[in-house]
Design a protein that fits this description.
123 residues, mainly beta, 7-stranded mixed β-sheet, 3-stranded mixed β-sheet, 15% helix, 44% strand, Iron-sulfur cluster insertion protein ErpA, FeS_cluster_insertion_CS
């Protein structure tokens, strides 16, 4: 079951979501930490990377008043409002392939992305 807690005036439709596979991996990663209480995965979009923007994934206990909190299958994901604008309609996914395992974002707003999957540009 997924639940998103947006700021009071933000609509839910078309917002950022978390796949079940990504949620399972987040739960697994957090459970392996020395102090897992209050940890969440923060997903942010920063300026930089090969294509103009890059995704950042990090464990975080700090929550801002305007953070969007997404709860999916026991996992908690935090997104700041500025990043959320660039993640509109996107989904956090976890990919486990022969070449490696990593979080990725399926972002319909990205006009192009680099081979590593952490950098993108907008149309």
């Amino acid at each position: 079951m997924s639940q998103t807690t947006p700021p009071s005036d933000a609509p839910l439709a078309g917002r950022f979501s978390v796949s079940p596979g990504a949620a399972a991996r987040i739960v697994e990663i957090i459970s392996q930490q020395e102090e897992p209480d209050g940890l969440a995965l923060r997903v942010a979009v920063l300026a930089g990377g090969c294509n103009g923007f890059q995704y950042q994934f990090k464990l975080d206990t700090d929550r801002a008043d305007d953070d969007i909190v997404i709860e999916q299958d026991g996992a908690t994901v935090l997104v700041d409002p500025v990043s959320l604008d660039l993640l509109e309609g996107a989904q956090l996914q976890f990919v486990d392939k022969l070449m490696g395992a990593h979080f990725t974002v399926a972002n319909p707003n990205a006009a192009s992305s680099c081979g590593c999957g952490t950098s993108f540009s907008l149309a």
